[in-house]
């Protein structure tokens, strides 16, 4: 969308914004900014659309990366974006070679397919092609980025863009309704400003600078390979993976779903969060919710286990990343939803960052406090884990053993049926009644790459979190299944006794996966709470 800045209203603000620069440079910076705004610079000018293929042209994944903030929005289907689809259709047409560059008649853009060697763990050493969609606005931003003092005019940049795309000057002149001599003059001026000896030299220079787009479109993709593959395999119809850079240079990974103009809701996830996200798209659309789920460190990880276990502040890092996502998206104050083990973590987030949270919703929170006499196997499990938590090494080793067993889908089915056997609705969710497919394999895949995060959440909830993260200090609502086998409604009331009358929404007959089995009730309630909180400001 083209920028619609009120230049008169921002005149003094711009002067102040550039006041740290010397007077001449400040004036030049303000002039350039106003010139670009007046010319209608669009946000799309900073976006590079791309897609990856094997050497046979088979589509693997695609996305949109931003050259300004280095964020990446991934898509698993080529149908999700028209430019990605164009790249995929050209690749599928055949006769595609590494280095192919083709102008797209009538679209004012060109496609460029470059080879690279895959460095991720799933296919080390494999060679793939990445197709890049280069538009005129994007090309202009690259020219400005690497040649800030050159001062190329818009017609000069356009002529260089056409030449790099393989358009003959006479054709470019005809397309733009100008004379051939005018186009020659533009190229001559551009060569002088960019210190190039001629047309071949300026094309070589521009192509070299355009290669920067490969690194932008590659931003942190292979550090986030486990999350990327998981979303593609299980959640592609419901959520998209977005990768951003945090203020401290950390990689922020978020699942995002629902309409872009929906009321924003940030979820603090627990260990089973993908189960309630499978099939969530229609609920988010129906209730106009924009759901953002920051993936906390330790979950869906590509990093080695030893590196994660050496990081003693995983939970703190996760809380900081949640705050960074809220700031990056300008959401504060926002409705925060804590699901399962993420419920206690969400209370801690609200305690640390009260100005960022308008309302806290505990949705099927798991307090991991069930007594051995309650809820059968769940109570025995949590009691044992509380005991061994005092020995960090034993605690880690137990979780690593579970990782081996959860990795087997059939064993995973047995464990989950045992753990959730007290809830018929939860078993129905796991067997695929609501998500369209059995979910044991999804949970097995979650556990394989999330063992460290899960263990750290148990450590926090059963330890320090259980002692202090009980008072939210913000408006609080509780949405809970009446037959949750992990934490009963009565246990929730006892836990939250120090909070001033939290609003309780009982989901009759629901178990722990209420957001999946009773999605209409749960997501409608969350949407209503978020809209009321937003109206309060």
Descriptive notes:
The model is unreliable at 1-5 and 370-375 (pLDDT under 50). The protein has helices at residues 11-17, 23-38, 82-92, 136-146, 154-164, 169-176, 180-193, 199-210, 212-217, 225-235, 273-277, 281-286, 305-309, 314-328, 342-352, 377-388, 392-406, 409-419, 424-430, 440-448, 451-462, 464-468, 489-495, 514-517, 519-536; strands at residues 47-53, 59-66, 72-75, 101-104, 109-117, 127-135, 240-245, 251-257, 263-268, 289-294, 334-340, 357-365, 476-481, 503-507. The protein has 537 residues and is an alpha/beta fold. The chain folds into two domains: 45-220, no CATH class; 225-536, Rossmann fold. It has a 14-stranded mixed beta sheet with strand order 4-5-6-1-2-3-7-8-10-9-11-12-13-14, with helices on both faces.
The rounded Rg comes to 27 Å
Work out the strand percent.
15-25%
CATH topology grouping of the largest domain: Rossmann fold
Q: Strands of the biggest beta sheet: in what spatial order?
A: 4-5-6-1-2-3-7-8-10-9-11-12-13-14
- What summary fits the major beta sheet? 14 strands, mixed
What's the domain count? 2
The general outline is: elongated
Structural class: alpha/beta
CATH superfamily of the largest domain: Alpha/Beta hydrolase fold, catalytic domain
The overall strand count is 14
Low-confidence stretches: 1-5, 370-375
What is the CATH domain class of the largest domain?
Alpha Beta
Helical percentage: 40-55%
> What's the assembly state of these chains?
single chain
Distance between the ends: 27 Å
Please work out how many helical segments DSSP would assign: 25
Arithmetic mean of pLDDT: 84
CATH architecture annotation of the largest domain: 3-Layer(aba) Sandwich
